[in-house]
Amino acid sequence: MTTAQTDTPAAAMAQPAPPGFSAATDFEALFHGAPAGYLLTMPDGTIVAANQTICTWTGRTRADLAGTSMLRLMPAGDRIMYLTHAMPELDNSGSLTELSLQILGADGSRLPALLAASRFRTAAGGPELDRIILVSAPERRQYEQELAAALRKLEAAEADRQRLLEEARYDAVHDSLTGLPNRVLLADRLETAFDAAARDGGQVGLLFCDVNGFKDINDALGHDAGDQVLRQVAARLTDALRNVDTVARYSGDEFVILVSGSVTALELELVAARVQDSLREPAIVDGTPVQVRLAIGSAMTPVLVPPGGVGVGAGNVGAKAELARDLLRRADMDMYAAKGRA
User: Fold this and answer.
1) Which domain holds residue 202?
2) Keyword Coiled coil on this protein (predicted)?
3) Cα gap 266→247, rounded to integer Å
4) 131 and 38 share one domain
5) Annotated catalytic sites, by residue?
């Protein structure tokens, strides 16, 4: 009986090697002729063996590479990445699936490559080595660079958008000439002050200021000079107050000062005196001293109580808006009375 021959992989491997075949020789040829770069290194990166492809890429001989650190084959940035990412990963898990980096050529050129690595022990009780495979990947590196550049542009565009949005928000609640809070922000600060005073059972105090003779300054020196005066008045008032207080440009040459926290009539008078004293020195307009004085009116809310308490409360939004209008109206009237007394 004739038995048919079965051509299986096991059977093929069991067959005698063809004449002239040497596993060691052919494996070495495969090792050195592969299109990928192969390295054997110590865990600290010291090169034990390198194939011819690595030698070709770096312009160095195998003798030159043996005993040197593979880190010397990388630019500084990739060197740091290998030290901080690849080496700890190999120490922890024994393998590294993929790392994108560059290999330095002898002429200073940079070859983009993908690195994979695994750690093994040469024999029982023998030293550990890292098998490292490097595959040339110029398209991958270019894609990553283009992607990174696109992300940077997106981040820059988003930063610009956020900056413009913040500027728009700021401009919406600040006076463009003096940089002070405008009526919108003043109204918001008043609501906050009412709520705080109601919690403490206190009063809110406010000063209404008008620059005396401002029309005469405009007529005599021009509107640019008038603008300079307003900016200097704004700066003086700001410096005379605490950081928690608010000075707002209400309109034209009128300024409103909201004293933060519960305040007494005497404390409000002291703030008014400090504000008036801040303008004792003349403003300087194009080298010319201009004496500026303010007419200042004051007003205070009644003692405020929390909603549901006995007495005047800040209440809802409508009640707070009415309270603000009344406070501003009375301070404005007192300011005009002060003008009449001057």
Assistant:
1) 183-341
2) yes
3) 19
4) yes
5) 253
Query: Both 193 and 229 in a single domain?
Result: yes
Element (H, E) at 232: helix 223-240
Report d(CA 45, CA 90) in Å as an integer. Answer: 11
pLDDT at residue number 310: 46
What is the full DSSP assignment across 317-342?
HHHHHHHHHHHHHHHHHHHHHHHHH-
Number of folded domains in the chain?
A: 3
User: Is the residue at 36 inside a domain?
Assistant: yes
Band (pLDDT 50/70/90 cuts) for residue 6 is very low
> Could you tell me if residue 50 is inside a domain?
yes
Q: In whole angstroms, give the CA distance from residue 323 to residue 152.
A: 50
Alpha-carbon span 252 to 259, nearest angstrom: 21
For the domain that residue 49 is a member of, what is the CATH number?
A: 3.30.450.20
Q: 164 in a domain, yes or no?
A: yes
Asked whether residue 197 falls in the same domain as residue 310, the answer is yes
Look-up of token digits 């919690």: 199
- Separation between Cα atoms, residue 247 and residue 144, nearest integer Å: 52
Amino acid occupying residue 328? L
Q: How many CB atoms lie within 10 A of CB 196?
A: 16
Q: Is the dihedral of CA 151, 152, 157, 158 positive or negative?
A: positive
| Contact present, 207 and 256 (Cβ < 8 Å) | yes
CA 258 – CA 186 distance, rounded (Å): 8
Does a structural domain hold residue 270?
A: yes
Span 154-182, pLDDT tens digits: 899 999 999 999 999 999 999 999 999 99
Contact at 8 Å (CB) between 58 and 105?
yes
Q: Which residues contact 137 (CB under 8 A, 6 or more apart)?
A: 100, 112, 113, 114
- Distance, in Å, from the CA atom of 295 to the CA atom of 224, rounded to the nearest integer, reads 22
pTM over 0.70: no
Q: How far apart are CA 246 and CA 239, in angstroms?
A: 11
CA 159, 160, 165, 170: dihedral to nearest 10 degrees? 100
In a shared domain, residues 320 and 221: yes
